[in-house]
Give the backbone structure.
Amino acid sequence: MIKVIGLHKYFGDLEVLKGINAKIHKGEVVCIIGPSGSGKSTFLRCLNLLEEPTKGEIILDGVPLIEHKKDIDLLRQKVGMVFQQFNLFPNLTVLENITLAPCKVMKLSPAAAKEKAMALLTRVGLAEKADQYPSRLSGGQKQRVAIARALAMDPEVMLFDEPTSALDPEMVGEVLDVMQQLAKDGMTMAVVTHEMGFAREVASRVFYMDEGIIYEEGTPDAIFGTPQKVRTREFLSKVL
Amino acid sequence: MEILYNLLEGFSNGIYLTLIKDNRYEVLIRGFGNSILITVLAAAIGILLGLLLAILRLRGKGILASFANGYITVIRGTPSVVQLTIIYFIILGQSGLPDVLVASIAFGINSGAYVAEIIRAGIMAVDRGQMEAGRSLGLSYPKTMRYIIVPQAIKNVLPALGNELIVLVKETAIAGYIGVVDLQKGGVSIASVTYNYMVPLLCVAYIYLLLTTTMAAGLNVLERRLRRSD
Ligand SMILES: Nc1ncnc2c1ncn2[C@@H]1O[C@H](COP(=O)(O)OP(=O)(O)OP(=O)(O)O)[C@@H](O)[C@H]1O
Ligand SMILES: [Mg+2]
């Protein structure tokens, strides 16, 4: 589904990604862990070209993204993204947040878009908030709306960049539950997270990122149970 | 005491002479109407132009961005009365457009440069994540601008835009330079036939003051209402 070959990313002189190779298969949930500053966000953001890779290839469904940069709006529809800071549109209601892209990009009729949005809101347990503005929601509710908003474009892959890091502890669960349900429904997901419990339970594979590469990867059991490399072990002993 | 009495008597005679006799107050009313008309048209032109220039500048490269930069530098770096007379006597003089419209265009062109800088600041103040969220949903840059960024930016800078409108009203008082009878020109023309300057010019000043303070009060109400909706 997604294939990354020799991905490099520089910010000026700073080489953040130093040659990443990875595959994410359909239906897989890949959790990306690693120390702060190791390039997890940068890697994720390269996958929908929010960051432009300096070198390398990203192939989505057989389409090399970088060569098709001018069709990026079309390609991005296939890739949903959920941000740490939610990034809901404060000038729009919850419902409008969700229907905007389906109406303006997929050219869905307002009625059809609304019906779809309500179904998604029901799925994340927030149907009664449809007409509220985002400022009236709690953090956990905002993030669930953000997930519904991304799902409204019928993406084939969902990217999550620390979706629970900005939340009060008591709200983390409600967001992880939605994500876990999504995984169960077969969504392909790449999740940067510090929630090791979630990674252990839900991930099909775990990428440990360090020094600008995927330093070690494997099943959750392998990474959390018997990590092979010293740095992985050191990191895990700090966070677990 | 004597002086004060003379002054008062002179003033009330002056009111009769300059405002009531021969229905001269109508000149002020017509002038006031023209001032308002020019302000409204110029504000509309200024907003559209300012929005366009702001976005061109923000994209930051290419001839269009350089054009926007040059435009803003020239307009902000020259007196508006010079711009007005250049546009009237050199550029639009032969166009056959009504003078009021030429004045509106000139003030709109002027105001656009200031509005551009205001809106640009407003757009830059919108969180970067908003653009990223829009783009990640497959919305194009122009659509993200239109539905997400610009509405938030305008709301952020509404007070500054309101101030610009108040500045614009006062700025239009130079419209007389190209023969438009606006409020100021109306006052001056009454003064020049009656040889009484005090009454008509104080009237003009008072009307401008009333207008700008009313606008400022309206702006205050609007701001408070917006803050409540946050
Ligand atoms: N736009 C940018 N310009 C310059 N440097 C950047 C930029 N974005 C990220 N970096 C740098 O790239 C490195 C990797 O950042 P990144 O955000 O990808 O790390 P991360 O693994 O997501 O960290 P965290 O766990 O703190 O979110 C950091 O050193 C960061 O300072
Ligand atoms: Mg990060």
About this structure: Chain B has one domain: 2-229. The domain at 2-229 of chain B is CATH 1.10.3720.10 (MetI-like fold). The mean pLDDT of chain B is 91.
